[in-house]
Amino acid sequence: MVRGAHVRCQRGPTGAGDCLRHCACVSLTEVPNRWTRVPGGAPSAPRRWVAPLIPLADLFMWATFSRPSTGSLRVTWVTPATLVLSFATAAGAIAVVAACAAGWWSGGGWWPASAGIAVGVPLTVGSSAVGVVGAAQRRRD
After folding, report:
1. Which residues does 5 contact at the CB level (< 8 Å), separation at least 6?
2. How high does pLDDT run on average in the chain?
3. Going by fewer Cβ within 10 Å, which terminus of the chain is more open, N or C?
4. Whole-number pLDDT of residue 141
5. Per residue in 20-51, pLDDT tens?
């Protein structure tokens, strides 16, 4: 059960329904912590140099099944957890791309190296875009 959830049990048509089968979550209260707390309201308009990265960051969030409820990071804050995770993912993906490129150039075979590069480059670009958008939101406000 989610902390802060209010549960309401509904009885079946006979009035003697099984409470566990008919429980429904009525509402969830926000329980922010240091990793999920964001300022109130929507973030301010992005800076000119960040605006082109927002569609890329939105695409990456969609591809990783982490799309915000509003649909875009233009009007949704990037949580501190997402910010840290995106920069850590970018650093790890850069390391993978560098190792694969070194393996490719040293003659270790083209297939494994090219597969690592093909996966690592989009991961690096997308997670970096999310991180930069989140950092710009924090810097501005």
Report:
1. 25, 26, 27, 28, 29
2. 80
3. N
4. 46
5. 555 555 555 666 777 877 888 888 888 889 99
Q: How many Å is the maximal CA-CA distance in the chain?
A: 74
Q: Tokens 């429904």 correspond to what residue?
A: 24
Domain ranges of the chain: 1-31, 39-140
**Which of the four pLDDT bands, split at 50, 70 and 90, describes residue 112?**
confident
Q: Are 22 and 12 in contact (CB under 8 A)?
A: yes
47-52 contacts, C-beta under 8 A, 24 or more apart: 47/136, 47/140, 50/132, 50/133, 50/136
Phi, then psi, of 46 in degrees rounded to 5 = -70, 155
52, two tokens: 């082109």
Q: By C-alpha distance, which of 140, 135, 141 is closest to 82? A: 135
pTM, entire model: 0.72
Residue 103 bridge partners (DSSP): none
Residues 6+ apart with CB under 8 A from 126: 56, 57, 59, 60, 63, 64
